[in-house]
């Protein structure tokens, strides 16, 4: 895995005044991840200008996440995005954070993937890193259409 973690600038966005019950709906085990509740997704937009998420926000179900994770490897394999091709071998090693948001009235799931949370409580805190290479990525999944729309891998500095 090509990691430039030393060069990464960690920006940890704490979702203010959110208790565990509001934030972590469910922690998934394989791969490890957390589904954030709708209230936390709304606070994400307010606290981080780098994420272009719109409401109404919603809470993805575990069924949505299981389906998403089943489709992710084939999406990466067929993706034309050069950075996403780098993820083919090691995505099961990455921790995931899932947020439900809407774009043009379509419900979508934002996936924030990373291999190092820099000692942050990833179950309660949005992990956001500038650079860091293929250790950090983001993707957008449409659960209604059952397809991925976007994938971005952080750059290397």
Verbal overview:
This protein has 157 residues and is of the alpha+beta class. It has one domain (5-153). The protein is 22% helix and 37% strand. Strands 2, 3, 4, 5, 6, 8 and 9 form a 7-stranded mixed sheet that branches. It has a two-stranded antiparallel ribbon with strand order 1-7.
Number of domains: 1
Tell me the distance between the termini. 16 Å
Question: Which of globular, elongated, flat, extended, rod-shaped describes the shape?
Answer: globular
Overall structural class, as computed from helix and strand content, comes to alpha+beta
**Helix-strand sequence:** EHEEHEHHEEEEE
Gyration radius, rounded = 14 Å
The helicity comes to 10-25%
Note the total helix count. 4
Low-confidence stretches: 1-21
Largest sheet: 7 strands, mixed
Q: What is the strand content? A: 35-45%
Q: How many beta-strand elements?
A: 9
What is the overall pLDDT average? 75
Please outline what is shown here.
Helices cover 22% and strands 37% of the residues. It has 157 residues and is of the alpha+beta class.
Question: Which key features would you list for this structure?
Answer:
single chain, alpha+beta, 7-stranded mixed β-sheet, 4 helices
Q: What is this structure's SSE topology?
A:
Layout: E1 9-14, H1 20-23, E2 24-28, E3 33-36, H2 38-47, E4 54-58, H3 62-78, H4 82-85, E5 95-103, E6 106-114, E7 125-130, E8 136-142, E9 147-153
Parallel strand pairs: 3-5
Antiparallel strand pairs: 1-7, 2-3, 4-5, 5-6, 6-8, 8-9
